[in-house]
Amino acid sequence: MQTPSSPTAAALLTLCLGLTAHPLCADSLDPLELPTVLSATRLKQAPADVPGSMTVLDRELIRASGARNIPEILRLVPGMHVGYRRGNQMNVNLHGTNVTEARRLQVLVDGRSVYRPGLATVDWSELALAIEDIDRIEVFRGPNTAAYGANALMGVINIVTRLPMENHGTTLKYTHGNRGVRDWYASHSDGSLQHNWRLSLSAQQDDGFDHDEDGNDYRDGMRATRFNLRHAWQLTPNQTLDWQMAASEASRQSYYEFSTYFNHNKFDNPLDQAIAAHQPDADIRGRDFSTLGLWKLDINPDHQLQVQAYAQHAERLRDWRICESPIAFSAELTELRSLNPLAARRVRSYQEYLWRLEEAGRTAPDTRDEYIARYLAMEGMTYTPRMAELADTLAAMAEQQRNAEPVCGRINENIRETRTHVEIQDVLRLTPELRLLSGASYRHDRASSETFFNGTVDNQVTQLFGNLEYRPNQRWLFQAGGMYEYEQLIGDSFSPRLATHFFLAPLHSLRLVYAEAVRSPDMYENHANWRYRLREVTGPLSGPVIHYGWARGPGDLHQERMRSHEVGYNGHFPLLGLQLDVRAFDERITGMNSEPLKLDNFLPNNRSSIRFKGAEGELDWAFSRMDRLRLTYAYIAFDATSEYDQRLTARHSGSAAWLREWPGQIRTSLIYYGADHLNERRFERLDSRIEKQFTLADRSSLALALTWQYRLDDEALTWEENRFDSRSHYYLSAELNF
């Protein structure tokens, strides 16, 4: 047999590295242990087989980021935008939309949804999960209702925790830094061939932002403690049971956030002075509990069955004492509010207008009726005689009460949400070319709140899902998937996805994807019955009494709908240590509810739409045994009908990370994050981390790490009031393993 010449070998190597590799290269790839992902179709797939773009943030990258919370880690995902409503309240959106809401991403922890059913959000600060327990985070960037149902409209974030059989032993860690950072983590894992378990306890604390735009102290710190227990049981050689339990308790600082009928800060009468001086804190207390079980049975190498069930309960408790003008509890204002909320607001604004003119010694150019009628006409509404009669009565009451005593009492914004979920999933290889995933699930959601729902709202959801994967030869892969979903409160829907892959080489594919997706309105949007009931009342009224403000959900909102087209490329160059994924997309969402949902302006509807067009990509390159380079970039052009959906969309954003392992057990990382437009503000930050590890004994080690974050711009973070005294943020951690 003739040995290949040098030029022939070089040509063959070039061919295998290139995008047009010949099938003969496939044999050389067989020994490689290629990565797989789970969160795209629920099937184990190589990245080149995924019907869309998938970002995997591995344990090494998570540790190198030095991040203390998951949203900060997600800045490494192309097209992912992080917004801060305050220091202890973060939101994460893929490609953008409303800066204060995060309604359109499904978030899972080991397959358990932590997306709240009542208020359509994720409480990132209060997740019962420690960063140290995370193995990887898989982010499917694009609509994935076909695999995970409504609310996976724009993508899925699946946080996968470490298996308890990894690294038996004990870990103790403490982190201390400026801005009040005080974190600790403790875990112990042990086991045998059949049983493995891990128990972890952790806590986080920080002071949030330092001051607002006026230089005043900003009260938005947080404190959280967490408990996690996981047990993996090898029942038989082909059967496993994974069981988890988690709990958390948290406290988030918050200001007095009750909107009185009149703005008493602008005036100086006795009633105004008494109400303006009443500003108690209104902190939020949270408690979460969950348990999950996952049973897997490998019937044979081509057939696997699994059943997953979980239950969870979340409480957000907030109560405080308010003071308000007696007029806010009057039957007249309540009646006017029921006839026309805008008329009730215009009575208020005209009265404040008169008082300002009175202080300036001037008179109004138009009458109250002319003023209110004009504003109602602009919205196509009619100002009726009964409204005018009520407006006159209220104006007289407002004048009489300017020297009155305020009405004070306790209110609350408590809400409790529970979810139970059971799911069965079957994976079957029908032929060498054909693989089928199918499954069904049932979920029951309940939200209870006297304030927000006047009781309890229940929803039952049934799902049928499947994904068919057909590979006729080495060059082509076809996939078809879909989810049929029936919701008690909404009705039924079907979300399909079709994908075609053409393989330039075994690890290089071009893909075309078409997908449809939906998002169901949450209980709060569609079924709110929001009123404040005062108890322990003092002042001119006796309680309990009900505030005039009343927000009612319409009950007939329909689902938001997305249609997405994508063309992409995924490539893996194993000899170069290089992975690359790029995509171009066109996504259009219609029937959006983008309105602010305030007590005095609660008008949810399906009138908004947005269209995203753009391209994004990521490159991960281990260019030496010691160095790793990771680059991400996203360009997003958008057209939104609502101004609220234009706030958290950056046209250009990305990150650049360099990780290096030095001699002497030293690791460093340098990461740049940038976005040109987050709520009209630029964001640029440089993060650096250095870690030194000391070997103490055979199985004992100590790691010391310093993380330093430095803002390259001088902008507030998301909102004008979110400001720090210094651009620098640093914290030092010590981790002992034995």
UniProtKB/TrEMBL annotation:
It is a multi-pass membrane protein. InterPro entries: Beta-barrel_TonB, Beta-barrel_TonB_sf, Plug_dom, Plug_dom_sf, TonB-dep_rcpt-like. Its main location: membrane. Residues 48-156 form the TonB-dependent receptor plug domain. It is found in: Cell outer membrane. The keyword Signal applies. Residues 436-675 form the TonB-dependent receptor-like beta-barrel domain. PROSITE patterns: TONB_DEPENDENT_REC_3 (PS52016). Keywords: Cell outer membrane, Membrane, Receptor, Signal, TonB box, Transmembrane, Transmembrane beta strand, Transport. Residues 1-26 form the signal peptide. Belongs to the TonB-dependent receptor family. This is TonB-dependent receptor. It comes from Halopseudomonas formosensis.
